[in-house]
């Protein structure tokens, strides 16, 4: 059954299932009895509040999609997010089928000062798309992407995944920049910037965003673009989910041959210095068509590896020539760079970053790969299969956009550098997080600015947005003065 039909057929059942639960709702050890007329919620500033059952019923009646409470047969599935470290129980989950559903949910929360989490693809590393005792606005049923070969535009609903965006565009020989794990959400990915293997050719996801439909804190459905609500449109191109719930993204697409020269070259970690020193001198003059991203990791058997991920977006023969100098460095263990379908590359990390993994990550923006940084990368490396250092290489089209043309100001950075990892057991949390931090803090002195989409620290917005922050704060003050949308890299309303 497709997702839409699933939603329609479960709608009646879910409402029917939810209302008895209003009367016998067991959460956090508290049982609301038949006699109670409300359930417990949490306000924006963390105070306990009561949510009247009659009002909840009214919201459920107004929505096309199901409104779920604890005990609903799909509640536990719906509250799950990608990072297994976050196990939270919202008071209500509004599973939205359309913009009106979102508007009803936003209005319900605003009128009650109720904490709101917005779930796109659910891949927020710090788990900001779910919350305890608040309202989770779940966009996952709104996952359709359509691509138009004539206009070369794609429309992605707010809960769509990157796989759907890539797939819809490729069907017509077109593409836009998407990230490296295909089950990531278009929503959070795009609103924070959106880096991917084609960003040197086509810019970040936000650089390809033509317009968006969104619901602001006042419940209004707005179409925003350079022509309409231009300030708001500027803000959502880098400012994250601070300004409202985006229900549709319209992207520019580009003609693209899906058979691309791509893959990874892997060296033993003992050759990392040679590779990185070469890379530090080489990457600055690369053509926009060539994407090369270094990473350092450890295989499950303890073998340390230096990886270079490569995509050449152009004539493969020219790409082979461009790669020659890199291939002469050291003695790779494997060289998997070949002509292959773009989706092989776009899905190759999916299993390694599977849903439910416990994960912690920190990042920063690097202007230059200096000798000092290379030395530190070598010294800081930790041989542990749970951990890795990875990069997104920028430059090219990303860096030709002005620093404040969008709300993503890191336009002079060459690289986004991340350190962190994934593991299965809660017993690893403490040690793996401590080691990730140890590795990361050695590299941090080489960073200037941070990518809000990966930030794990809650009070980091000013440093994430840098010079874009004052304008973002002003726009936030205009469109979300009560800071309803606060579970993100949060901007204080000016
Ligand atoms: C495995 C993995 C791989 C990644 N790879 C990349 C990559 O290649 N490039 C890159 O740039 N980033 C990457 N990221 C980071 C990613 O961009 C962010 O985690 C992003 O927030 C995920 O978006 P989401 O919709 O899946 O997340 P969610 O958890 O649903 O949301 C994240 C944040 O965005 C807000 N949000 C989501 N959708 C909407 C919407 N429609 N309207 C309003 N607000 C919304 C949420 O409220 C929340 O604050 C990756 C993350 C993971 C976990």
Fold blueprint:
Blueprint: H1 3-23, E1 25-27, E2 30-32, E3 38-42, E4 48-52, H2 53-62, E5 67-68, H3 75-78, E6 92-95, H4 99-112, E7 116-119, E8 135-138, E9 145-148, E10 153-157, H5 162-170, E11 174-175, H6 186-192, H7 199-202, E12 209-215, E13 221-225, H8 230-236, E14 245-252, E15 254-255, E16 259-268, H9 272-282, E17 290-298, E18 304-312, H10 316-327, E19 334-335, E20 338-341, H11 342-347, E21 358-366, H12 371-380, E22 387-393, E23 415-423, H13 429-443, H14 461-465, H15 469-479
Helix pairs in contact: 1-2, 9-12, 12-13
Bound molecules: flavin-adenine dinucleotide.
Biggest beta sheet attributes: 8 strands, antiparallel
Q: Distance N terminus to C terminus?
A: 47 Å
- Mean pLDDT across all residues, rounded? 93
Weakly predicted, low-confidence segments:
1-34
Present as ligands are: flavin-adenine dinucleotide
Please tell me how large the radius of gyration is: 23 Å
The number of helical runs is 15
Outline: globular
């Amino acid at each position: 059954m497709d997702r839409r039909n699933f939603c329609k057929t479960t709608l009646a059942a879910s409402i029917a299932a939810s209302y008895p639960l209003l009367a016998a709702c067991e959460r956090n050890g508290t049982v609301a009895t038949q006699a109670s007329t409300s359930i417990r919620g949490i306000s924006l500033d963390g105070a306990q509040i009561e949510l009247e059952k009659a009002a909840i019923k009214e919201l459920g009646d107004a929505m096309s999609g199901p409104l779920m409470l604890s005990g609903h047969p799909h509640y536990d599935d719906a509250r799950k997010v990608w990072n297994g470290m976050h196990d939270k129980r919202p008071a209500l989950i509004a599973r939205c089928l359309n913009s009106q559903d979102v508007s009803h949910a936003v209005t319900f929360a605003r009128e009650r000062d109720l904490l709101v989490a917005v779930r796109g693809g659910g891949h927020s590393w710090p788990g900001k798309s779910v919350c305890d005792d608040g309202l989770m606005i779940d966009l996952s049923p709104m996952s359709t992407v359509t691509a138009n070969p004539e206009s070369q535009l794609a429309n992605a609903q707010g809960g769509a995944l990157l796989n759907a965006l890539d797939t819809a565009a490729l069907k017509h020989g077109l593409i836009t920049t998407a990230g490296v794990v295909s089950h990531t959400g278009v929503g959070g990915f795009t609103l924070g910037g959106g880096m991917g293997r084609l960003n040197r050719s086509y810019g970040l996801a936000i650089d390809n965003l033509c317009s968006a439909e969104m619901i602001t804190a006042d419940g209004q459905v707005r179409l925003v673009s350079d022509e309409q609500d231009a300030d708001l449109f500027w803000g959502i191109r880098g400012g994250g989910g601070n300004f409202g719930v985006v229900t549709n993204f319209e992207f520019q697409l580009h003609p693209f041959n899906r058979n691309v020269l791509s893959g990874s070259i892997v060296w033993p970690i003992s050759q990392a210095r040679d590779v990185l020193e070469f890379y530090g001198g080489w990457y600055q003059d690369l053509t926009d068509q060539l994407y090369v991203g270094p990473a350092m990791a450890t295989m499950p058997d303890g073998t340390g590896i230096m990886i270079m991920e490569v995509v050449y977006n152009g004539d493969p023969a020219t790409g082979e020539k461009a790669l020659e100098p890199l291939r002469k460095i050291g003695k790779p263990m494997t060289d998997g760079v070949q002509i292959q379908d773009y989706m092989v590359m776009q899905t190759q990390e999916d299993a390694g970053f599977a849903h439910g993994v416990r994960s912690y990550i920190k990042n920063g923006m690097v202007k230059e790969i200096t000798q000092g940084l290379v030395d530190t990368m070598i010294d800081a490396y930790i041989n542990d299969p749970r951990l890795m250092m990875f990069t997104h290489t920028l430059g090219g089209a990303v860096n030709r956009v002005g620093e404040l043309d969008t709300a993503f100001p890191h336009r002079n950075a060459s690289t986004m550098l991340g350190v962190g990892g994934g593991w299965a057991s809660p017993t690893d949390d403490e040690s793996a997080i401590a080691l990730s931090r140890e590795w990361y803090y050695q590299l941090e002195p080489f960073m200037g600015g941070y990518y809000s989409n990966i930030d794990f620290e809650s009070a980091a917005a000013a440093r994430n947005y840098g010079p874009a922050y004052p304008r973002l704060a002003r726009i936030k003050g205009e469109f979300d003065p009560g800071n309803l949308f606060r579970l993100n890299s949060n901007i204080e309303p000016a």
